[in-house]
Structure prediction request, 78 residues.
Amino acid sequence: MGTTKVLALEIPDRPGGLGMVLQILATATINVEYMYAFVQKSGENAVVIFRFDEPERAAHALQGAGIRVLAGEEVYAM
Prediction:
């Protein structure tokens, strides 16, 4: 069985934080295949795992909007 590329994002841990990220994705017309919350936090932010149909384009759009995409090593170290 192969691996699936996902992105771990730091999401503001406050009401509307996830909505803000989803709005960035909607504006860029990027589809979310699925997402799930990660049990750890990164500072004051939540970590959410996303699977996109176009992960590179999603990462570019999110980083351009100031959303931090975590490297695999950062997630594994949590």
Remarks:
- The chain is about 35% helix and 35% strand.
- The helical segments are 17-27, 55-64, 72-76.
- The CA atoms of residues 8 and 72 lie 8 Å apart.
- Strands lie at 7-12, 32-42, 45-52, 69-70.
